[in-house]
Amino acid sequence: MSSPAAKPLYAGYRFPAEVISQAVWLCFRFPLSLRMVEEMLAARGIVVSHETVRQCALKFGQEFANQIRRPPRAGDKWHLDEVAIKITGVQHWLWRAVDQAGMVLDMLVQRRRDKRAAKRLLRKLLKRQCRAPRVIITDKLPSYEAAKREVMRDVEHRQHKGLKNQAENSYQPTRRRERQMKRFKLARQAQRFLFAHDQIANLFHLRRDHVTASEHRAARARAFEAWADISGVTTAT
């Protein structure tokens, strides 16, 4: 039985809160196509079209992501990187920052790969994190150093291609999603989808090193509880 809080959020929708929550979670948590999500739901006896799954993801993905709380305190070492993505045949740059634990701090889809674009990312990070890091790690793109001198003058800056593996690794789920979606159609769509994708990934970003199996299971259970609360499907007791 759904909780009373779920009713206003899903008012007017044919499917119950539990089905919509599961569909959105599958879309953003795993590199699945819409038809794969349709089939996975069908295996559980839920008949829903891939177009309905798409509409639910558009409607609720961003809304759920906005409710996910940031970690109490992100790491003090920020890894910054940018990769090229094609949107309707035009090259864009996906800028992303992660901390030393692999938590995504923020991202931006931009047309430029220059000082102005780097400054925009740094300012957005400062506004969202409400503090400067101890050190930032980037590749040798000169735009980072030029932007840092104006935005984070006193922050240590390390430039070395081999030091930013954390940021590069964070792009792997994005690349898989991009392939499944047959590339993004609009920069705005990419920004919206990847923001929700990263926030949901952060919620389920569970460290396996230096923790016992029981601690890992407890952390996973807390993540699922948080997702149920965010999506409004907490079961009544």
UniProtKB/TrEMBL annotation:
Residues 76-204 form the DDE domain. InterPro entries: DDE_dom, IS_Transposase, Transpos_IS6. Pfam families: DDE_Tnp_IS240. Signal peptide: none annotated. Transmembrane segments: none annotated. It comes from the Bacteria. Keywords: DNA recombination, DNA-binding, Transposition. This is IS6 family transposase. It comes from Belnapia arida.
